[in-house]
Prior knowledge:
six-stranded mixed sheet; alpha/beta; 10 helices; 19% strand; five-stranded mixed sheet
Amino acid sequence: MIYLNRLGMLCAIGADHDAIAAAMFAGRSGLSLDSRHLPELALPLGSIAQPDSALPTADHLPLRERSRNSRLALAALAQIRPAVDAAIAHYGPDRVGVVIGASTSGIAEAEAAMRRYRADGRLPPDFHYGQQELGSPAAALALTLGIGGPAYTHSSACASSAKAMASAARLLNMGLCDAIVTGGVDTLSAFTIAGFHALESVSRTRCQPLSANRNGINIGEGAALFLMSRDEATVALRGWGESSDAHHISAPDPSGHGATLAIRQALQRAGVEAAEIDYINLHGTATRQNDAMECAVVDALFGARVAVSSTKPLTGHALGAASAIEAGLCWLAMQDRNPQGALPPHLWDGAADPELPVLNIVTPGQRLGRPLRLALSNSFAFGGANAALIFGRQ
Length: 394
C-alpha cells in the first residue's frame, strides 16, 4: 500500500492545516478581486493567503532556481520538513525522490525581466532564463533537501500534479525510491491570466460550477506537497488512472470516453467498486464544456448517490497545482479530526442547469455521519490529459 504520510499546503483559503480545514468546511471562499498582475483587468483570483514576506527565502539556491514559485514550494516543504528529513536519514538521500506538477515555474520573473529590458535595454542581474524552466521547482526542492533520487516535474496543464502523484507511486512500486516528495506548485502571472482571458475562459465573478449561469474559471495559485511512502498512515493513495483524449487542444472530448477510462482505471487499481466511493472532488471548472462532460461521466458511473463538489470556488483553479491542492483537501477531510465526515461544500448560485444530469451536490454543513473512507478526485486538462486519484482512509 502507498501512503500519504504528511501534507504541507498553502492556498487561497489558508497557509496551514487548521486554517485551510476551517475555511473549507465553512465554505469560505478565498477569491478576491485582483489587478496586480494585469492592471487593466481586475478579476477574482485565488491568491495565497500568506504574504510574500512570510515565504522562505530562496537565497540558498542557484540563481536559476530562485523564483516566487520555488518559494511557495519551499513554504509547503517547511511544513513537512522534519518528516522528510527523517525519511532521508532512514532510507538514504539516494532513495528519496521529488516528483511534482507545475505549469508556470518562474514565468512571473521572466515578465518582470522583460519589462526591465524594454525600459533600459538590459536584463536585471537577478534574472536567469532557467527560472522559467518547468523543471526548476523540482530541482529547487531536490537541492534544498540534498537528495540524489529522481527529481522531475510533470507539466500537463491542470492534470500536472495528479500525474506527478501517479508517477511517484510508480517509482515506489518499481523499487526506485523508498520515499518521495510529491504534489504541485503554481503561481499567478500575467501570462496565464491574459492567456485564459484571451480564450474567453475566465469569469469576472466567482465561478459557478454546474450552474446554468456558469461562464468560466477563476485562476488561483498555491502549493501542496505530500511525503509519500509505504510507511503506514491515515490516508493511502489507493488508485490512479490516466488517459489522453487526443480530441482538442483546449476542449474535452464531449463523449467523456477518456475521463471514463481514467476513472475506471483508478477504481480497478484501488480494487473498489463505484458504489463504494463516498465523495467525488470534481474537476468542476465552471466552463460550459468541462462541466457538461464531467457531469455526464459521473452520472453514468456513479449515478446520483455519491456526494460531489467542486472546490475551485474556494481556492481558484491553481492550474498545475490544482490536483495536489484538491488531493490535500481530501486528505484533510479524511483525518481523525473529522469523525463525522464533513464534506467540502459546493459553492454556487443554486441555479441547476436543466441540461446536466442531477447529481448529489454537497451543501454547506453536509456530513456523512461517519469518517470519509473513499474519495475520488478528478482532473481533466487541456490537451485531453485526464487523471483520476482515489484516496482511502485506513
